[in-house]
Amino acid sequence: MKRRAIYPGSFDPPTYGHIDIIRRSLQIVDEVVVAVVYNPQKDNFLFTPQERIDMFRQELTDVGDRVQYDNFHGLLVDYADKQQARIIIRGLRAVSDFDYEFQMALMNRRMKPHIETIFLMTGAAHFYTASRLVKEIASLDGNVDGLVPPHVAARLKEKFAKR
Ligand code: PNS
């Protein structure tokens, strides 16, 4: 049986940190579904789910169909069941991530004990990379080179130029 994992997140926008986690997760599972969260009621993301998926696709052209892309809303554990995945992958950065991630992993396990969360330590180069900070820097016309791929930086520039 294929080992299938969900890599969920808001990815608004995808960073090199996320891309590193996807590539490394392919060393431990057979398939990864990158699941972009959205809120059908009130979408307060900068990029649409499709734009976020497009940015991943553009960066991960070499991985083939072991990486799939989707968007979801509602409970993550329900989505994982729907995808027949028993593994949720999350990246862990600084200590500040731990509390939130620990809480979420335990809540998810409480709801669906057959689904396991696996944490991958972020690459050292991405320890402080966060989509939220990338957006803030880009919105103030700062340099985001090295944090996100050049095509993502270009899309950020385009979005903020329109605002
Ligand atoms: O990249 P993020 O914003 O840290 O990702 C958070 C995400 C999408 C994993 C989390 O918000 C989530 O799982 N949302 C779906 C709703 C859900 O299942 N909530 C209960 C969590 S215990």
Structural notes for this entry:
It is a single chain. Strands 3-2-1-4-5 form a five-stranded parallel beta sheet, sandwiched between helices. It has one domain (4-126): 3-Layer(aba) Sandwich (Rossmann fold), CATH 3.40.50.620. The longest helix is centred in the middle third of the chain and has 17 residues, at 95-111. The protein has 163 residues and is an alpha/beta fold. Helix 1 (16-25) links the parallel strand 1 and strand 2 (31-37). It is 40% helix and 19% strand. The model has no long low-confidence stretch (mean pLDDT 96). The chain binds 4'-phosphopantetheine (PNS). 4'-phosphopantetheine binds at residues 8-10, 37, 75-76, 104, 107-108.
CATH class descriptor name = Alpha Beta
Assign an overall shape: globular
Q: Tell me the Rg in angstroms.
A: 16 Å
Q: What order do the helices and strands follow?
A: EHEHEHEHEHH
Count of distinct structural domains: 1
What is the percent of helical residues?
A: 40-55%
At the fold tier of CATH, the topology name is: Rossmann fold
**% residues in beta strands:** 15-25%
Discrete helix count: 6
- Physical arrangement of strands within the biggest beta sheet: 3-2-1-4-5
By CATH, the superfamily comes out as: HUPs
Unreliable runs, pLDDT <50, ≥5 residues?
A: none
Largest sheet: 5 strands, parallel
Calculate the terminal CA-CA distance, rounded to whole Å: 48 Å
* CATH architectural label: 3-Layer(aba) Sandwich
SSE-based structural type: alpha/beta
Number of strands: 5
Mean pLDDT value: 96
Bound molecules: 4'-phosphopantetheine
